[in-house]
Design brief:
InterPro entries: BMC_dom, BMC_shell, CcmK-like_sf, CcmK/CsoS1_BMC, Micro_shell_prot_PduT. Its main location: other. It comes from Blautia intestinihominis. With 182 residues, the chain is α+β, with helices and mostly antiparallel strands. 39% of the residues lie in helices and 35% in strands. It is built from 6 helices and 8 strands. Strand 6 and strand 7 form a beta hairpin. Helix 1 packs antiparallel against helix 2.
Amino acid sequence: MSKAIGMIEFKTTATGITAADTMVKTSDVEIVEAQTVCPGKYIAIITGDLSAVKAAVDAAVTTYEDKCIDSFVLGNPHESLFPAMYGTTQVEGISALGILETYDAASIIEAADQAAKTAIVDVIELRIAKGMCGKSYMLLTGEVSAVEASIEKAKEFVAEKGMYLDSSVIAHPDKRMMDSLL
């Protein structure tokens, strides 16, 4: 039994709430976050045992397939994902800053997991479709070469799904700029 996280992203709030209800009724999972995001889409993030999360996400996607934008199940997600989603990551000393932006909500979490597992980096923020017209972004930090490798891996992953929008790596970002971000 391993821990997992799963997510659904739906075109409408009504279907999203109904699908989230289906997920918790299908399996023993906990809702981490469930809400309407820009532009009127609905996301639900759940956690639990891998098989339970998979069954819950599959049930929601299968039942409401016509309104599903995207979904995923991640077994053993990187430990930096949850603090990054909630803005509780503690950051000290930034050698490089990586930024990756996507067209959707679900792929940014998967991309962040890929990036964090590629090199020694810290995911410091995951902005999931809030105030961005449905787009999402992540910020990560580490040594310049590690950040470059992580952003490249995440970029490749998101591009395969057709959700890549933009990315950059800033070596030694100015403290004033970082203070405005964090």
